[in-house]
Design a protein that fits this description.
CATH architecture of the largest domain: 3-Layer(aba) Sandwich
Strand content: 5-15%
Number of strands: 10
Number of helices: 19
Order of helices and strands: HHEEHHEHHHHHEHEHEEHEHHHEHHHEH
CATH superfamily of the largest domain: Vaccinia Virus protein VP39
Strand order of the largest sheet: 6-5-4-7-8-10-9
Distance between the termini: 65 Å
Shape: globular
CATH topology of the largest domain: Rossmann fold
Structural class: alpha/beta
Number of domains: 2
Amino acid sequence: MTTTHPPTHPAPAVDPGRWPDVARVPDVPLRAAVAARLLRRVAARRGLRVELPGGGTLHPAPPGAPVLRLRRPQAFLHRVGEGGLIGFGESYQAGDWDSPDLVALLTELATAPETLVPPGAQRLRRLYVRRPPAAELSTAANARRNIHRHYDLSNELFALFLDPTMTYSAALFPTGPRQEPLAGWEGLPAAQHHKIDRLLDLARVGPGSRLLEIGTGWGELALRAAARGASVVSLTLSEEQLALARRRIADAGLADRAEVRLCDYRSAEGRYDAVVSVEMIEAVGRPFWPDYFATLDRVLAPGGRAALQAITMPHERMLASSRTYTWILKYIFPGGLIPSLRAIDETAARHTRLRVTRADAFGPHYAETLRLWRERFTAHAPQVAALGFDEVFRRTWELYLAYSEAGFRTGYLDVQQVLLTREEAVA
């Protein structure tokens, strides 16, 4: 693995004040040696092409194999040796490695990830796996700060890669003969509206409905619900989203039907015929799921319906990751955890009168949504820079979007629209 050849590309400039753990290259030779052996094993078993700076390869690989292009092999190995998957991500942020097809590489690595590390080496996880920091738990005191770190980056930033509906969740596309999502960028707004309308239909939102939305986004669902004749209260902790959502609602002439409040879900007030929440439960955090579902139960009027759109993962994987500090938690979504459908069902049943009565999965549609976002984000790199975001930020978000897309392509992640009703209302 050792090479004297210089990197083939210059490293991004890393601001140590903004990115302290990306700027720092650890010195852990024994762990780096273990990482080198693991890299050889993974590359051989998964058929990866690992390219070295001088033009050579780690070992022969089949034509068309996913490519891991090492620019600074030693920095890569020391980061991975010290931090595991967090180090792997930070190594990409720093420019230690790259790939001509990042999604293809991550899709291969995300396929049966439990088989990547041999059973004997699994015991070494305790050397680098950390618990999520208490300061990032989504308590009432911390939740606004967690949301601020992601959703308050810049409305202009999100507008660069989202479609005109400013919807930041899985779209629901028309499908082909094999149920694969069909659409391109031009069809994304209609696919987002289809997703929203299906969720509103699931909650039976119509003229005169009193609707609570937990997690406003930039207001598209509130707009469509108000246009149906519903009376909408929408809650958010993002000041950036609050301002734009209110402006969009006012511009549409619907301010008399839709109100956006800066409010934690735990402080929700009133009684509603329906509650909807789109991809917000992932930010709640496992310790607070009982509070979240208790809020739904508390504010729902008799006969009310709660319709959630939630990213999910298999239950055993959720349990394994629930106490692990991941790269995504560190750099993208602090304080959260993706639930399983079983966890949603069991938490609601244990702490409320609500029961899951329907769940519809459409994970491949999220993979397609993410592909469109990722391509737009990459194409707008100069505009991202013009907004004041550096190259490390750009690489961070490229990895996040590609990693997420790979998760949905492999089935490691799914997305579901879930209906919850009270037991007495099921019959």
